[in-house]
Amino acid sequence: MGRVLLVRHGQASFGADDYDVLSPTGWEQGRLLGTWLGERGVTPTSLVRGDMRRHRETLEAVAETAGWGADATVDAGWDEFDHLGIVAGHPDVPSLTDSGSLDRRAFQRVFEEATARWTSGEGDYDETWVGFVARVRSALDRVAAGAGSGETTVVVTSGGVIGVVAAVLADPDDDDPASLARRWSRFNAVMVNASVSRLVVGSTGARLLTFNEHPHLEGHHLTYR
Q1: Tens digits of per-residue pLDDT, 37-67?
Q2: Structure pTM?
C-alpha cells in the first residue's frame, strides 16, 4: 500500500496585513515537525503542496530540519476555502470591525457561525460548500492515483481541506452535503497547526489511518488558529 501524509500548515499571521504568511511560531512549528518526521525516517517519494504562501513556507520549514528538498508539485486543489470572504459575509462582522472587537475569541465565534451558514447553502459565495468538497475530492484522487505501493507522498495543505478528507473517508457511503458538513465541522474545530494526518492507499482507494497527530508540539507551539 501507499502512504499519504497530510500536513496542516503552521500558524499563519492573524491580524496582520497579510494573513497568508507564517508567524514566527508557525515557522518553528514547521521545524519541529520536520525534526520529528526525520527522526522517524520519513522520506517522501513525492511532495505536493497547495498554492498558498503558508503552504510553501511550511514545507520550507519542515524540509529544513527533516533533511528533504523543498521542491514540490503545486496543486491549487489543496488550497483552503476563502475563510476571510466567508467571515466577511457574516452579518455581525461590520459592527465587530467598527468597534475594534474582532479579536481571536470574537473571530472564532464569527468563523464558526459563518462557516455553518456557508455549509448550509445560505448566502452567495465565489465557491460553494459543495464546490469546495468536489475540489478537495479531486485533489485527493490525483494524489491517491500516484501513491504506489511502498511510496510516501507528503501533502502540505490547510485545516479545512484536511477536515473534508477526514469527513469523506470517515463515512465514504454518506454523500449527503449536510451530513458531511456536520462531520467536517467537528474535524475542522480541533485541527492543530503543523499536525499530520495519515492515509493508506490500496486497491480500494484511500483510507484514513490517523487524524491530527501532534506529539511534536506542546506549550506555546500548540495552536489551532
Answers
A1: 999 999 999 999 999 999 999 999 999 999 9
A2: 0.91
Measure the CA–CA gap between 169 and 83, rounded to whole angstroms. 23
Distance CA 7, CA 199 (A): 11
Identity (one letter) of the amino acid at 107? F
Out of 104, 126, 148, a domain closes at: 126
- Other beta carbons within 10 angstroms of residue 133's beta carbon come to 21
Cα(156)–Cα(148) distance, integer angstroms: 19
Residues 55 and 102 in one domain: no
| Residue 216 and residue 160 in one domain | yes
CATH number of the domain encompassing residue 42: 3.40.50.1240
